[in-house]
Design brief:
The chain contains 9 helices and no strands. It is mainly alpha-helical. Helix 1 packs parallel to helix 7, helix 4 runs antiparallel to helix 6 and helix 4 runs antiparallel to helix 8.
C-alpha cells in the first residue's frame, strides 16, 4: 500500500476537523463580539482576496521554497491551527477579521498542495480513485464529524475554548503530514 498517502489522508482528516470549526463558527464569533453582517462580509472578502495570490502562484512558491507538496501541506495545517488558536483567544472584533488573512497560508496553500501531493504520490492508474477518496474522507466525512464535534464542544465549553481545542487537531494533522513528507520516496510511490 501507499503509506504516505494513507498517513496524509489521516492528517488531512484531522486538520479538516479544525477547518470545519473555523468555517462554521468564524462568523458566529464575529457576531458574538459585537460585529454585524457587514463585518462577516468583510471577513469573507479578506479570505477570498488573500487566497487568490497563493493559489495562482502555488507552483512558483513551491519551487522557490524547494519544498515538497507534503511539506507545504504540513505548513498549511500549522496555519489552520494558528488560525483556530487565534480565534480561540479573540476578545476583540478586529482579531477574527485579521485572522481571515490566514486563509492565504491555510486553505489557499493546502488545496493546490493536496492535488500536487496526490499527483506525485499515487500511480497514474489510481489517480481518480485517490482524489475521490481524499475528498470523500478528508473533506466530506471531516465536514460531517467536524461540524457535529465543534458544535457539541462549543455548547459544552464555549466558542473560544472550542477553537483552541480544535487547533490541536490541526497541529496533530500537521505532525502526521510532516511524517508523510519524510517517508522515503521509493516506498512512497509503491502500490
Amino acid at each position: 500500500g501507499n503509506r504516505a498517502y494513507r498517513l496524509m489522508l489521516l492528517a488531512s482528516f484531522l486538520c479538516m476537523l479544525a477547518s470545519c470549526a473555523i468555517d462554521s463558527f468564524h462568523s458566529v464569533l464575529i457576531l458574538a463580539l459585537g460585529g454585524t453582517e457587514r463585518h462577516v462580509g468583510a471577513a469573507l472578502f479578506v479570505q477570498a482576496i488573500c487566497e487568490l495570490p497563493v493559489m495562482i502562484g502555488y507552483t512558483r512558491l513551491r519551487d522557490r521554497l524547494c519544498a515538497s507538496p507534503a511539506v507545504l501541506m504540513s505548513a498549511a495545517m500549522v496555519f489552520y491551527g494558528l488560525r483556530a488558536l487565534t480565534l480561540g483567544f479573540a476578545h476583540s472584533l478586529w482579531v477574527p477579521l485579521a485572522a481571515s488573512s490566514l486563509q492565504a497560508l491555510s486553505f489557499a496553500l493546502f488545496t493546490p498542495a493536496c492535488v500536487d501531493f496526490i499527483l506525485r504520490t499515487v500511480s497514474p492508474q489510481r489517480l481518480s480513485t485517490a482524489h475521490l477518496v481524499f475528498q470523500a474522507l478528508g473533506s466530506g466525512l471531516a465536514a460531517m464529524v467536524g461540524n457535529t464535534l465543534s458544535g457539541a464542544v462549543a455548547d459544552a465549553v464555549g466558542i473560544h475554548r472550542m477553537f483552541s481545542l480544535m487547533s490541536l487537531l490541526a497541529f496533530l494533522g500537521s505532525a502526521f503530514a510532516w511524517k508523510a513528507a519524510h517517508i522515503p520516496k521509493e516506498r512512497r510511490v509503491s502500490e
